[in-house]
């Protein structure tokens, strides 16, 4: 009866042998790096598997980096496209406001459109001055000299503004 109990229970030395085999593979891999002793089949298989895992991880990281770079480029292109769309809508709105005949509108709408036209003209003048200043800086000119030459060019826009104020 004791023999049947011994047979049904696994021997403790057998279970320790299995765990010692695993640790010996690890020890063999470590020893092979430090000594000139051959690593054996298990150690070679372990090292080959580790090399495969390392290669797989490197490929995965490389793929993730490439995908991330592609997504960044796509996001940048979307931002530029949305900025261009917003600018074109702003220009279309300003063009519509500037082309609106205010004489056929009621008093409140007329005042709104006149204020918007003044704002548009002011913004355009400001943009023009910024462009002229940037050009003067790049050309190495004195900004005051270039603004004196351009005062004559502002005469038609000043007349247009006076006309708008008169309405």
Automatic annotation (TrEMBL):
Domain No apical meristem-associated C-terminal, which positions? 8-120
Q: Which residues lie in Polar residues bias regions?
A: 25-37
Composition skew (Basic and acidic residues), residue ranges:
1-12
Please provide an example of a Pfam family that matches this protein in its UniProt record: NAM-associated
Which InterPro entries does this one have?
A: NAM-associated_C
Q: Which domain of life is it from?
A: Eukaryota
Q: Where is the composition biased (Acidic residues)?
A: 149-167
Which region ranges are annotated with the description Disordered?
1-46, 142-167
Q: Where is the composition biased (Low complexity)?
A: 13-24
Write down what this protein is called: AlNc14C68G4752 protein
The species is: Albugo laibachii Nc14
Taxon lineage: Eukaryota, Sar, Stramenopiles, Oomycota, Peronosporomycetes
Q: Tell me the gene name.
A: AlNc14C68G4752
């Amino acid at each position: 009866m004791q023999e049947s109990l011994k047979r049904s229970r696994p021997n403790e030395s057998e279970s320790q042998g299995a765990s010692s085999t695993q640790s010996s593979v690890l020890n063999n891999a470590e020893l092979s790096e430090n000594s000139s002793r051959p690593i054996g089949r298990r150690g070679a298989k372990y090292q080959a598997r580790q090399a495969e895992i390392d290669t797989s991880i490197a490929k995965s990281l490389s793929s993730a980096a490439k995908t991330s770079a592609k997504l960044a480029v796509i996001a940048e292109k979307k931002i530029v496209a949305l900025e261009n769309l917003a600018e074109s809508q702003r220009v279309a709105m300003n063009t519509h406001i500037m082309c609106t005949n205010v004489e056929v509108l009621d008093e409140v709408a007329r005042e709104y459109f006149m204020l918007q036209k003044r704002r548009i003209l002011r913004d355009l003048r400001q943009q023009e001055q910024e462009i002229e200043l940037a050009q003067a800086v790049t050309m190495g000119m004195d900004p005051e000299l270039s603004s004196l030459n351009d005062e004559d060019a502002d005469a038609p826009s000043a007349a247009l503004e006076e006309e708008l104020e008169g309405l």
